[in-house]
Amino acid sequence: VNMGGDWHMPSYVQIKELIENTISTRTTLDDVSGRLFVSKKDTSKYIFIPAAGLAWDGGVYISGNTGNVWSSMTSPYKASYGLYLHFNLAYAHLCIDNRCYGRSVRGVIG
């Protein structure tokens, strides 16, 4: 909403598509640790997501090792939980957790 236009939080389908249709590798870009997702069909299309960690109780934890990006979808089982992209040093996958945790928000178009 703050970004205006067609920007929005990624949907569950968009995050699932990112995981299934890219090859992701841990990398560092401009001294920032994160994960690079490169399209399996067109290697000129990619996205870098920093390993920003998790904010909770006034602190930031596991920064540089893990990354988390909220989706726009809450859990179908409990409204206080949400779905998000989680990645660490080895892999990336979808997770569900309490929305009280400070995870990254990454606007997308499309």
Topology readout:
Blueprint (H helix, E strand, L loop, with lengths): L6 E2 L3 H9 L1 E8 L2 E8 L6 E5 L3 E3 L2 E3 L5 E8 L6 E7 L4 E7 L9 E2 L1
Antiparallel strand pairs: 1-10, 2-3, 3-4, 5-6, 7-8, 8-9
Key features of this structure:
110 residues; mainly beta; three-stranded antiparallel β-sheet; 1 helix; 8% helix; 48% strand; globular
Could you explain the architecture of this structure?
This protein is mostly beta strands and about 110 residues long. It is about 10% helix and about 50% strand. It has one helix spanning about 10-20; strands spanning about 5-10, 20-30, 30-40, 45-50, 55, 60, 65-75, 80-85, 90-100, 110. Strand 5 and strand 6 (about 60) form a beta hairpin. The radius of gyration is 14 Å and the shape is globular.
